[in-house]
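YegS/Rv2252/BmrU family lipid kinase, Roseomonas alba. Tokens?
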Amino acid sequence: MLIVFNPAAGARRRRRLFAALDLIRGIGQRPEVAETSHRGHATELARQAAEEGVRVVVAAGGDGTIAEVAAGLAGSDTALGVLPLGTANVLALELGIPRAPAQAAAVLAMGRTALLHPGIAQYPDGQELLFVQMLGAGFDAAVVHHLPGGLKRAIGKGAYVLQTMREMPRYRFAPIRVSIDGRVEDVASVIVTKGRLYAGRFLLAPGADPRAEGFHVALFREAGMLAAMRYGAALPLGLLPRMRGVEILRGGSVQLRGEAIPAQADGDAAGFLPSAIAPAPRPMRIVLP
Ligand SMILES: Nc1ncnc2c1ncn2[C@@H]1O[C@H](COP(=O)(O)OP(=O)(O)OP(=O)(O)O)[C@@H](O)[C@H]1O
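Tokens:
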């Protein structure tokens, strides 16, 4: 087992990593630990471990680190493990992976796996980006693009709330053209999701499951600050999927087009549209409770 640790959020994360390591070592396993030193590093480390035939590579970090490790493991037989040390940890919440380090470590030690079906976003320059949870374009991606890293480290999840407030009056809400298996929709924002949760434990797409094939596509038809405020208020109440102007469709391949529209994947900035989203060529294994 290799544990890929993102130290970016500081000492608290490291303590939680050590707590997990204590348990894993306590039952006689000797995992290696590799620390990431830059963005994308987790993918390189995971790819190398998969080539060497390592059985499980654990992403010790948040959803961004999980996506990077998953990208490195794609196409291999190495399973993805998760030690949730991030800010929101949406995938861990989604799949019932415990946040407490000792409990998460116990899950890893058990080694029970399930199939995970990631998505891949393709850009016109040939770049491909794998995501395990979601790809959003429009307002929520603008929030992610402009989120100051320091603010997130200082106040955690509150940074997203603050940045959302800042973004509301200035985001342009330029139209996005979404094609879902050929059906065309023009919307203000869109989230192509594998999972049912968003921004923590808030309901976005009832019935979605990263262990299932296909995507749920949440369309936000209404533009402007008032609509963004309504959607933002509905999210923590679990009412977002039922709001006026919100529609959730299912599909297997999704194309997103628009002028200078930002995108985010698994909570990290993911360039600008256009982007074509399809299932990863092969599902992968993930260690689950
Ligand atoms: N050493 C590093 N220095 C700076 N950034 C890093 C480093 N290692 C990894 N990163 C980047 O930090 C990003 C965010 O990390 P991660 O997802 O683990 O935490 P998070 O954003 O706090 O959690 P969540 O996504 O659950 O909110 C990753 O996508 C990764 O690219």
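Residues 6-9, 36-39, 41, 61-65, 68, 86-89, 267-268 surround adenosine-5'-triphosphate (CB under 6 Å).
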